[in-house]
Amino acid sequence: MDEKLPTRAENYSEWYNQVILRSELADYAPVRGCMVVRPYGWSLWEAIQQSLDRRFKATGHVNAAFPLLIPMSFLEKEKEHVEGFSPELAVVTVGGGEKLEEPLVVRPTSETIIGSMYAKWVRSYRDLPILINQWGNVVRWEMRTRLFLRTLEFYWQEGHTAHATQEEAEAETRRILDIYTHFAINDAAVPIIPGKKSNAEKFAGADRSYTIEAMMGDTKALQAGTSHNLGQNFAKAFEIRFLDVNNEQQYAWTTSWGLSTRFIGAIIMTHGDDKGLVMPPRLAPIQAVIVPIFKTDAEKAEVMPVVDRLRQELKDIRIHVDDRTEVTPGFKFNDWELRGVPLRIEVGPKDVKNHTVTFARRDIPGKEGKTFVSQDQLSGRVKEMLDEIHTSLFEKARAFRDAHIHDPKDYAELQEVVKEGWAYSWWCGSAECENKVKEDTKATTRCIPLDQPGGTGRCIVCGQPAHEKVYFAKAY
Amino acid sequence: MDEKLPTRAENYSEWYNQVILRSELADYAPVRGCMVVRPYGWSLWEAIQQSLDRRFKATGHVNAAFPLLIPMSFLEKEKEHVEGFSPELAVVTVGGGEKLEEPLVVRPTSETIIGSMYAKWVRSYRDLPILINQWGNVVRWEMRTRLFLRTLEFYWQEGHTAHATQEEAEAETRRILDIYTHFAINDAAVPIIPGKKSNAEKFAGADRSYTIEAMMGDTKALQAGTSHNLGQNFAKAFEIRFLDVNNEQQYAWTTSWGLSTRFIGAIIMTHGDDKGLVMPPRLAPIQAVIVPIFKTDAEKAEVMPVVDRLRQELKDIRIHVDDRTEVTPGFKFNDWELRGVPLRIEVGPKDVKNHTVTFARRDIPGKEGKTFVSQDQLSGRVKEMLDEIHTSLFEKARAFRDAHIHDPKDYAELQEVVKEGWAYSWWCGSAECENKVKEDTKATTRCIPLDQPGGTGRCIVCGQPAHEKVYFAKAY
């Protein structure tokens, strides 16, 4: 804690790690590539969970729980799926002291085991749609890991739905993309771009994948949530069939979609600054911290009753009073700045005398972020200020993103701009052009945004006619 | 769904399985010994989670997440712990296509991995207490499995705390036992007996284990939640040490405590009857179901607007309107009885005319459970009725339990009464007497209740002086 945090300019990657460790969001586990999500990090995840879960339930989804362990043979039923996931599997070969006849994989995702249950449950069109979500943990044996961004085990929600028609499945896939978009913008203040993945970048086993893509503080892209239209691929692999209204057997149409603890990485790298975390107010585990300020016992006797009263008045927001006596107010200021609490409320003898408190905004450092507020208006002003900080964080992040999105005039310029930014360019849609960019620059297609300019252009790589624009960027 | 549910008297075990499958609480998974918790079952678990989580947080606990995979060597650090758990382990030996140097076990419980982190986090007495809980899944390789009661994978919360003194650790262990007791009685309407486990029955690695024990509808006992004082056993195994106020190195004192999806089994077997589930109102996924009743379109046009209005008025309870058109009201009645919805509200043309609704209580079948309630008083009456049903379920279960607890006069009578009930008897505390009962009758000591009669007696087995009374019973 004593050494200074590296700045983002000095070493972005080390800044990221140190912010997480020092703010106690997470810690390295004694198992390679695994993390411990500490209470401060987990309460952020709980806020994310509540925010999404409310939206899922409002659109008719229900939660359930499917097994962690999946027979290896299940994965093999969908060809692309097993090819995509088999290099990343953790395999249980021994149970209760005996070698298992069939190895079980620790789920890397649950399309297969859930597909097998839907096959059992679905008989008629009346059983559809099934709109189930699951909150849980999955394991993917990654070689290069980063806290929150890529860990062997991570936490997520995975939705799995089954429908009677292709149209309904596509509508569901898009509805979820809308929910992710709404959540990211309105609760996390993360300006994301919703779009479609290229064939090369789509989920193993999907017909079509959608994503929300965010730009991090180092201009790299981060895939922050995905929604997949699985077509009939899993329905055919697992025999999810139903009698339709005409009494004919049909295969169902399925979707899957997920958002994970990786999103915490997106929050850190969208809003964080050289002092540490900056929590978006609507998800912040602590929305405001009250720091009492006094030097003498007499001052303490003046200040603390006011602090206790204000704490009561603010009990419908997530409030914390830092009444530690072994550290100075200056230490506390740094500590809560590191942890990214959006609003600090200082109460000292002068405030008591003036019947005020002092607001200090996390997002605006120093004197400019300070205002004096009457104690009578406290509760209303705190809520307004939290909304103001939310909007301000979002606008700042959007401005940063837009300043780093370029429209290169030719392929040479594209190669330049993706070094520190994104290119938004016409693309013919061919895997060859996509691959060439990747090989030449390490940038990949991030998404074909839903919001297209219209018209046609020339592919930035090959010059052939192109109907869609795409974002190219280096990515986490 | 067509065949009749077996009665409890005919075949208790089959009644239990069929109730779960038909009410769609859970289903068998395609992996031996695993279950799928279906949406109806998971929403019951979510209600249990919220009920407990609120109590944990109100007493200063916070949630976090520790890894699923634990190095085998960690378990071996605590001798009793590894002996207790090693026969039940699922072991990952392959990761990312390669054989692992050290096998990883899928956590059967997390004392070891959490202990290793606490050793890293705790330096001084100022870092204590640590009061962390985790909601998650664990795997124990059981040979004989039952839905909810004993499955390879199950869901639970596991609390793990560390303290500076023995007294604080014991106080925490007891505080949690109080929370479990309060939850069981006040939210689940399950009359439990809180007490201490014998040495033979305590947790592998604990100094002392406490339990809440419940009696099921077949008079068998079910351990419904446990709280362990781990002494310094894990602190010594994992080097959880701190500098105390006198600047001296001390080992911490730790506790652990858990309540799992097994509790759903307790709810089913405490309240269920020959028609199916009976949900305790405060945890019921659906607290009241409105069934509109009409035969003609004209009647429908009268009834449905009233139903829609009443649904709005009841939106602060968990309400469901069964507006299916393809099934009859009689079918619906049976269906919701099977699923145990505490209160059915019927609205038919006569009700509309009289400005009333008809209440039908799940816990009192037939006409006696019916009352007519004015639509003007609906919301208040529904809440009162749910409270009334809660109390009634609790009293009924307590009366059943007390009627099946016996005070045998000698060992011969003890052997008789534990065939269909519990014996509450003096016990000298020796493992020999405990073992003799187990061998002769299959009954084990369930708990030494906190609430003792006082005084002394003679051990029901050996006749030696005894200072405590204990419950002997056959158990799940």
Give the helices and strands, then pairings.
The structure is a homodimer of 476-residue chains.
Chain A: H1 12-22, E1 26-28, E2 35-37, H2 39-58, E3 62-63, E4 69-71, H3 72-75, H4 79-85, E5 90-95, E6 98-106, H5 111-121, E7 130-139, E8 153-163, H6 166-186, E9 192-196, E10 208-215, E11 221-229, H7 233-238, E12 241-243, E13 249-251, E14 253-260, H8 262-271, E15 288-292, H9 297-313, E16 319-321, H10 329-338, E17 343-347, H11 349-354, E18 356-361, E19 370-374, H12 378-403, E20 405-406, H13 411-417, E21 422-427, H14 431-441, E22 444-449, E23 457-458, E24 465-466, E25 468-473
Parallel strand pairs in A: 3-7, 15-16, 15-17, 20-21
Antiparallel strand pairs in A: 1-2, 4-6, 5-6, 7-8, 8-14, 9-10, 9-22, 10-11, 11-14, 12-13, 17-18, 18-19, 21-25, 22-25, 23-24
Helix pairs in contact in A: 2-6
Descriptive notes:
The structure is a homodimer of 476-residue chains. With 476 residues, chain A is of the alpha+beta class. Chain A has 3 domains: 12-271, Bira Bifunctional Protein, Domain 2 (BirA Bifunctional Protein, domain 2, 2-Layer Sandwich), CATH 3.30.930; 288-383, Rossmann fold (3-Layer(aba) Sandwich); 405-473, 2-Layer Sandwich (Translation Initiation Factor IF3), CATH 3.30.110.30. Chain A is 35% helix and 28% strand. The first copy, chain A, contains 14 helices and 25 strands. In chain A, strand 10 and strand 11 form a beta hairpin. In chain A, helix 2 (39-58) packs across helix 6 (166-186). Chain A is globular. The model of chain A has no long low-confidence stretch (mean pLDDT 97). At the A-B interface, strand 2, helix 2, strand 3, strand 4 and strand 5 of A face strand 2, helix 2, strand 3, strand 4 and strand 5 of B.
